[in-house]
Write a structure and sequence with these properties.
Elements: H1 3-13, E1 32-36, E2 39-42, E3 47-50, H2 53-56, H3 65-75, H4 89-101, E4 106-112, H5 115-132, E5 140-144, H6 153-157, H7 162-165, E6 176-178, H8 192-210, E7 214-219, E8 223-224, E9 230-231, H9 235-247, E10 250-254, E11 278-281, E12 293-298, H10 299-305, H11 325-340, H12 343-358, E13 367-373, E14 376-381, H13 397-407, E15 410-411, E16 418-421, H14 429-446
Parallel strand pairs: 3-15, 5-6, 5-7, 7-10, 10-11
Antiparallel strand pairs: 1-2, 2-3, 4-12, 8-9, 11-12, 13-14, 14-16
The chain binds 4'-deoxy-4'-aminopyridoxal-5'-phosphate (PMP).
4'-deoxy-4'-aminopyridoxal-5'-phosphate binds near residues 115, 150, 220, 226 and 256.
C-alpha cells in the first residue's frame, strides 16, 4: 500500500488539526508507517528526521525500546482506572518523582490529559483559591503579548496569537495583556537581560493597577513557542516572581512546551531560581507516547480547598482519562532515561552543535535573528534585514522551507517565517549537521 493509497482514504474521512484542508489539493499528506529514533518512515519508504519532535512532544525518539518495554509491562497490569476514589501505583510514583524534581514546595499534583486542560485547571484553581478566601473581585488574568497556552476557550482567552484567537474573540473572557519581554525586540546594543528589565516596567504597572481584580499572571517561561519561538531572559521571571508576591497575585508557569529539558535545564523556571504557584506540564512528560498533563501546586493552595464537603470548597474538576496508568508508566520510563543517561548534561554538547551548525545563517541577507535556549533553536527570516520588515504572511515562505526539507528527508515545519529545530534528544551531531544544511538550503530557496 502506497502513500497515495492511504492519503486518498485519509482525505475522504479525516479533518486534520491546524490545517486548511484545501492545501492538500496540492500539498501531499504524508502517511507514516513506522518510526524509529529520530526517523519517521512513510508508506513509499521515504524517511524523515523528526526535527520538531512531532509537535514538541517526542524527546527520546520514536519506538524507544525502554519506553516500549515499560508500556508492554503496564498493559498486562492495568490499562486505566477512575482516579476519583481510586488510585494506582504509576500515578503515585510519578507524583512523588515530580514533586522531588520540580522547584521546592510544589508538592501536590493534579492530573489532566492534554496541555490545554492543564492550563484550564491552573486558571480555575487560581480563581477558585481566591474565591475560597472570600476575594470575589479577583476574576481576571494577566498574560504577555504573543503568548500561547492552548486552543480551548479559556486558554485562547489568555493567549495572544491572532491567527488562532481572533475568530473566537466574541466567545472569550478578556485578559489583561502586557507587552512581552521578547528579546527579538531589542534595541541596538541592548542585551536580553536589559530588554527584560525595560519591559518589566509594563508588568509592574499592570500589577499595581489591577492586582485587586487579578487572580494570576500566566507565562511561558523563557520561550514563547507557538508565538514564533520568541525568547526572553530568565531575569524577567525573577522580577515577576517578586512582583507577584508583592501584589498578592499567583504566578502560573506554563512549562508544557519548555519543560523536560527543552531550554537546557529540566524545567525553565530553574534558570530564574523561582517557584511558580502553579506549574503546568505535558508534551515531553511521556516522551511523546501518550497524552498526559499535570498541574503542580503548593501547600497553601491545597489547604484553601481542604475542608468539610458541605462547605463546597472542593475542586470538582475532572477528565475521564485523568492520570491514565499507561501514560503515567510512560512518564516514569521517561524520568528513568533522564536519570540513567544524564540527559541534561549530554544535551549541553548537542545544543552547542545545534548552535554552531547554523551560526553562518546570522550573515544571511534574509535572516534577522538566530536564537537559542538549549535544545530549541530558531531562525527568523525577514524581507529586509536592515529594517527587520517581515515577509508578508500571505507569501508563506516557511511552507517553501517545509517542502524543501521533506524532499531532503527532514520534517522541519516552520512557524510562519521562523524555521526552528526542536529535535528529540537522541539526535546525533551528524543528523544535526544534516538538518542545518537542509534548513540553510530551504532558507535560500524561500528567500529568493
Ligand atoms: N501551552 C503551551 C506553551 C503549548 O505550547 C501548548 C501546545 N503547543 C499548549 C499549552 C497546549 O497543549 P495541548 O496541545 O496538549 O492542548
Amino acid at each position: 500500500m502506497s502513500n497515495q493509497h492511504w492519503m486518498q482514504r485519509d482525505l475522504s474521512v479525516l479533518w486534520h488539526p491546524c490545517t486548511q484542508m484545501k492545501d492538500h489539493e496540492t500539498l501531499p499528506l504524508i502517511p507514516i508507517r513506522r518510526g524509529e529514533g529520530v526517523w519517521l518512515e512513510d508508506f513509499d519508504g521515504n524517511r524523515y528526521i523528526d526535527a520538531i519532535s512531532s509537535w514538541w512532544v517526542n524527546i527520546f525518539g520514536h519506538a524507544n525500546p525502554r519506553i516500549n518495554d515499560a508500556l508492554k509491562a503496564q498493559l498486562d497490569e492495568l490499562e486505566h482506572v477512575i482516579l476519583a476514589g481510586f488510585s494506582h501505583q504509576p500515578v503515585i510514583e510519578l507524583s512523588e518523582r515530580l514533586v522531588a524534581l520540580t522547584p521546592e514546595g510544589l508538592n501536590h499534583c493534579f492530573y489532566a490529559d492534554n496541555g490545554s486542560s492543564a492550563v484550564e485547571v491552573a486558571l480555575k484553581m487560581s480563581f477558585h483559591y481566591w474565591r475560597n478566601l472570600g476575594k470575589r473581585d479577583k476574576t481576571r488574568f494577566i498574560t504577555l503579548s504573543n503568548s500561547y497556552h492552548g486552543e480551548t476557550l479559556g486558554t485562547l482567552a489568555v493567549g495572544d496569537v491572532a491567527l488562532y484567537k481572533s475568530t473566537y474573540e466574541p466567545l472569550l473572557m478578556e485578559a489583561i495583556t502586557v507587552p512581552s519581554p521578547d528579546c527579538y525586540q531589542r534595541e541596538a546594543g541592548e542585551s536580553c537581560r536589559e530588554v527584560a528589565e525595560r519591559m518589566f516596567v509594563h508588568m509592574e504597572q499592570a500589577l499595581a493597577r489591577h492586582a485587586d481584580e487579578v487572580c494570576a499572571v500566566i507565562v511561558e517561561p523563557l520561550i514563547q513557542c507557538a508565538g514564533s519561538m520568541r525568547m526572553y531572559d530568565p531575569y524577567y521571571l525573577t522580577l515577576l516572581r517578586e512582583a507577584c508576591d508583592r501584589h498578592g497575585v499567583h504566578l502560573i508557569a506554563d512549562e508544557i512546551a519548555v519543560g523536560f529539558g527543552r531550554t537546557g535545564t529540566l524545567f525553565a523556571c530553574e534558570q530564574a531560581g523561582i517557584r511558580p504557584d502553579f506549574m503546568c506540564l505535558s508534551k515531553g512528560i511521556t516522551a511523546g507516547y501518550l497524552p498526559l498533563s499535570v498541574v503542580l501546586t503548593h501547600e497553601q493552595i491545597y489547604q484553601a480547598f481542604y475542608d468539610d464537603y458541605q462547605n463546597l470548597t472542593a475542586f470538582l474538576h475532572s477528565h475521564s482519562y485523568t492520570g491514565n496508568p499507561l501514560a503515567c508508566r510512560a512518564a516514569l520510563a521517561t524520568l528513568d532515561i533522564f536519570e540513567q543517561d544524564d540527559v541534561i548534561n549530554a544535551n549541553r554538547a548537542l545544543a552547542q552543535v545545534m548552535g554552531d551548525s547554523v551560526a553562518h545563517l546570522k550573515d544571511h541577507p534574509h535572516v534577522a535573528d538566530v536564537r537559542q535556549h538549549g535544545m530549541t533553536l530558531a531562525v527568523e527570516m525577514v524581507k529586509d534585514k536592515a529594517s527587520g520588515e517581515p515577509y508578508p504572511w500571505q507569501e508563506r515562505r516557511g511552507l517553501k522551507v517545509y517542502q524543501h526539507a521533506l524532499s531532503r528527508g527532514a520534517l522541519l515545519r516552520p512557524l510562519g517565517n521562523v524555521c526552528y529545530m526542536m529535535p528529540p534528544y537522541v539526535i546525533t551531531p551528524e543528523q544535526i549537521h544534516l538538518l542545518a544544511e537542509v534548513m540553510s538550503e530551504g532558507i535560500d530557496l524561500a528567500c529568493r
